[in-house]
Write the structure tokens for this entry.
Amino acid sequence: MNTFLSNVEFAKPFFLWLLLALPLLWLRYYRPVTVLIARSIIVAVVILVLAEPQLSSEQTRIQERIFAYDLSASVTPAMRRWMKDRTSQFSAPSDNDHVFAFGAEAAKVSSWREIFDGDQTAIGISPEKTNLENLFNALLKLPPAPRNLYLFSDGWETQGDVGRLLPTVAAAGIKVYPILPAERAAIANVAVTKLLAPTQGNSSESLNLKVIVENQSDRVVEGTLTLTGNGKTVKKEAVRLNPGSQAFTYQATPTEGELTAYQAAFAPRDRNADLYPSDNHALALVSVRTKAKVLLITGRSGAGEHLQEIFKRHGLETTVRTPENAPPPKDYKVVIFNNAEREKFPAGYLASTERHVAAGNGFIMLGADQSFAPASYRQTPIEKILPVEPKEPPRPEEKNRALVLVIDKSGSMRDDNRIVFAKEAAKAVARQLKDIDLLGIVGFDDSAFVVVYLENMARLRGVVNSQIDRLKPGGQTYFLPALLEAKRQLERANASRKHIMLLSDGVTRGSQGELVDLVSTMRGDSKITTSAIAISNEADVRIMKRIAQYGGGLFHHVVDPSTLPQIVLEQLQDKPKEEPPKDENLTPIQERGSELLSGFGPRTYPSIRGYMETELKRGAQLDLLITKQNRRVPLLASWHYGKGNVVAFTTDMEGRWSRNWIQWSGLQGFWGRIVDWLSPPEENLVPAHEASISLAENRSILDLFIYDESSALSQYRFTITGKSGKGNGTLTKLAPGHYQTALPISEPGEYRVDIVEERRGQKISFPPIGYNLPYDTTAERPRPDFNMRLLSRIADATGGEINPDPQAAEADKGDMVTKNYEPLKGPLIILAIGLFLLEVCLRKFIFSEP
């Protein structure tokens, strides 16, 4: 009896307080005591019913394990050997555990060793396909019990859809732990993964084509790489491919008025070195159109990125060169000198530029000391055409800086050799820093570790490169621990400026709010600024932009990882020795009556952190000014020179002094107004955009990015022509300016994709896109990477994780105790009714009143 009462629990015990009100029944005691006792018992039983009593009991369920092995054709013999070795790290399966092998079908086996040591063809799993859905259907047929599933698979499901079973699998108590090697096993295959080309080119002007070739084997492969344009050979050369990705750059000139189809193809010398020739070629289409051209001459290679992007969005064909290889200015409507050294120009180039401007073309000078120092262009033709006169700037004292590079080393950094370029960027930073500067490097995947502890370069110079080479790709992406480690090191450093630079190509785990709070706190409390560089289109661009915004740094989105070292170096140009010591947060003021800025909407401008000292020439127009010691210092000035127009902008556009300008929403319109004043734009209805097609989760995905606000309400349709015939459809809007669709492609081959914008009754045709589907996405073949997206989805949906620690996984194997509850409310209700009837009988027949 005591055991029974100890197992009784109340769901709503607060109703038991009503038992204290029972004495209210006894206040008027004029009935027989027996009736009063009966009524008290009835009320007490009703109170117990309200408290919802229930009888609890415990049940022990055995935690089982399941080992499932992918034996489909996409799993190489090397990976099968790894599966066997990895399984041996777990304790041997017991009688309660299950072992399955699967391909298109799933089969239960008695021992995991017979899968690897016996005849695999006798299992009957149909290895020509991978069907994870059939595997999970087989597991769901097992008697209900909590289980841990250790899934050995590359994740490439070529048949079925396991996603629709995940809620059922999770409800059945099956936790899935995908088990993967750190690196994909080598495959005897060479793939031409990309042919990068601009969608449009100018007639009689060469364009750069980049061919990305990936050698997926573990040995050198020799062969021939051929580039053709409209069937005519542009370049054919013998190549020697080391394991990994390699890029080959070529120059070609498209024909005016025609669509040029460029194709890159690889032919191996030894066929056994390339067993899957279907992915040996790539396609790109380039159309030619005539538009105003801008020549941007920068002081160093890779500079001028922001200006180039602005002019691109404005519909201008921009050619970027350094002074040593600058083309003649005669073919360009606007020539721009961006901090270019005059000594590096060829003889006579400055004089030809002056004649070009006087003949009716535009000229812009901007930058720092190479543009506006007193000796920069003294006694040259460029000095004559400038509307300002340079002055000698003050010389600030030299200060040191502390920089921590936070580098993503997750598994996706293996793609396109991103980790290689990230390491090269880190080495380039080390070479750029002075001995008094401090450098630290933190690597991270789902955890953080220190590659180089924060130390001055005088001590690190001889060892830093070997330390950087320790970075190896693997794992997933989690920003927060790495940023915390960088913060910890910088807080103890003694430096005039402290900065964190985050490089990543992935989507971070955790809360975005935590990251924003962290970088905001570092910026406000510790004076640590944070910049972010997103590598590839798979990166979490939105949160990395917010990190840079709230961290007070810069943001870059790098599609081509080979440009990463240069992008990183650009952020180091903010040198304290070149900044005016007291010219921070200076607010430009627009001059009234400015012809250049008339009609430009904004009247307030972002602050700048520095500028070059100049004086306005007689006859020039002051457009933007800085007030300093009761002086009106020119920031933007303009005038007419001959038949042409000239503009001088006495600060940079690289983020050194213009960080707030680069983040300014009105920057596009500002430079658009300047270019329009220098040279009226040619009419072009096609908005500035980027379009790309990629293979993701066995689907060909078309992404379209629009950078023109006038197209915000437009609809976009596509037409695809190729081996599968002709198809069409509509792109779906994912975010402002971002549209996407899955292309209806079923057969491997070359395809042309045409995009049409429907804008207020108009149909605007975009330049066509060339695409090559390398192989049938449902074919079972080894692939160079794992389907981490699907495997992560399976693990997250079921409460598991990828590559758990064997000891931790074994600790999770214990028995599971569940608690059951049986309600007692029904019997108590029957008891209350019976007592009520008994009490009525007592009053009626035994204790009846006259």
